[in-house]
Design brief:
The chain is built from 13 helices and 14 strands. It is an alpha/beta fold. The protein folds into 2 domains: 230 residues, Aldolase class I (TIM Barrel, Alpha-Beta Barrel), CATH 3.20.20.70; 87 residues, no CATH class. It has an 8-stranded parallel beta sheet. Strands 9, 12, 13 and 14 form a 4-stranded antiparallel beta sheet that branches. It has a two-stranded antiparallel sheet with strand order 1-2. Strand 10, helix 7 and strand 11 form a beta-alpha-beta unit. Helix 1 runs parallel beside helix 2, helix 2 packs parallel to helix 3 and helix 5 crosses helix 6. Keywords: Dioxygenase, Flavoprotein, FMN, Oxidoreductase. This is NAD(P)H-dependent flavin oxidoreductase YrpB, nitropropane dioxygenase family. Pfam families: NMO. GO terms for molecular function: dioxygenase activity; nitronate monooxygenase activity.
Length: 333
């Protein structure tokens, strides 16, 4: 059965799939453009980069496709407001935000007619986001990559949040690696769409270094671990030599903070430096964020082929049950 479209605000994605906005410089216009062209929502990672760079990348994406372009901005960023306003000025279609919760972002979205999509990991924040005016809500579970807001798995936390969100689209995120799982989350659990990130790292268009991609390709299940981020949250990453040295007690803190990018930072290490190092190829001294199931992915494919496989597999088993979605039930017929 054909997958339904995903409507967020005044925008309609032909394929109910959001590409996660990975920072720093993992999700750029180079990735967002082909995702949007395939009918999904292409997302630029807007955290940890200078405002002029973000504006230029958004404008590049908007000029290259008629598809939907979003930007993901962490609330934990010190210049969160500047990044939001710059994104709106550059013409972004919607703003996705997590790693903290902003009430003011909804007022800004309403003022500038820009849909705000909240990433949450609890029923209370989901309920609050819908009340304050979120155009859609992403439920991000423990299987996700990068910064984590919960230790609960997707299939446990999603049904609870589904029960309290009824007016806006609810998106499932965390550990989804193929179209069969996409159909499961939509058909059985009532998701209106999915968000995936790690799978797009292993795309031809993702602009990270080959060394970064090779780290994914070589990773085994036991290599994917939780680490403490200077942001004050747990993060999930592939164990690199940098993480090993840190676990052994080596002082990896910077002599001086060059960025001062976070509202709160432990200064245990510079997350911006370590993420950028991996993107450029120095994975031994870098941080490689990934989802819990990244070890299952062993192919680098064009974005178009990733979409083709997801849609084909999802539609081969998808059987929309409107009553289940309406009632928020997780029981199969």
């Amino acid at each position: 059965m054909k997958l339904p479209e995903l409507k967020i605000g005044s925008f309609t994605a032909r394929i109910p799939l959001i590409q996660g906005g990975m920072s720093v410089r993992v999700s750029t216009s180079a990735l967002a453009i082909p995702v949007a062209a395939c009918g999904g929502i292409g997302t630029i990672g807007g955290s940890g980069i200078p405002v002029p760079e973000l504006k230029e990348d958004i404008r590049k994406a908007k000029s290259a496709t008629d598809g939907i372009i979003a930007v993901n901005i962490m609330y934990a960023m010190k210049n969160f407001h500047d990044l939001v306003m710059a994104s709106i000025e550059a013409g972004v279609d919607m703003i996705i935000t997590g790693a903290g919760f902003s009430r003011d972002i909804f007022k800004i979205g309403k003022q500038y007619n820009t849909p705000i999509v909240s990433i949450v990991s609890s029923p209370s924040f989901a309920r609050l986001a819908e009340k304050l005016g979120a155009a859609a809500i992403v439920v991000e579970a423990a299987e996700a990559g990068g910064h984590l807001g919960t230790d609960k798995p997707l299939r446990e936390i999603f049904p609870v949040i589904r029960k309290v969100v009824s007016k806006v689209p609810l998106i499932a995120a965390g550990g989804v690696t193929n179209g069969f799982e996409m159909a499961e989350m939509m058909d059985k659990y009532g998701a209106d769409g999915i968000q995936i990130a790690s799978r797009f790292v292993l795309s031809e268009e993702c602009s990270v270094s080959q060394e970064f991609k090779d780290t994914y390709l070589k990773a085994q299940k036991e290599d994917i671990i939780n680490v403490q981020s200077p942001v004050g949250m747990t993060g999930r990453a592939v164990k690199t030599d940098f993480i090993r040295r840190m676990e052994e007690g080596e002082d990896v803190s910077p002599e001086k903070c060059k960025f001062k990018c976070l509202k709160k930072c432990s200064y245990k290490y510079c997350i911006n430096d370590r993420l950028v190092a991996s993107c450029k190829g120095d994975v031994d001294n870098g941080l490689v964020f990934c989802g819990a199931n990244a070890y299952k992915m062993k192919e680098i494919l064009p974005v178009k082929e990733i979409f083709k496989r997801f849609v084909h597999d999802a539609e081969s088993v998808y059987k929309e049950n409107n009553m289940q979605r309406k009632e928020g039930s997780t029981e199969t017929a």
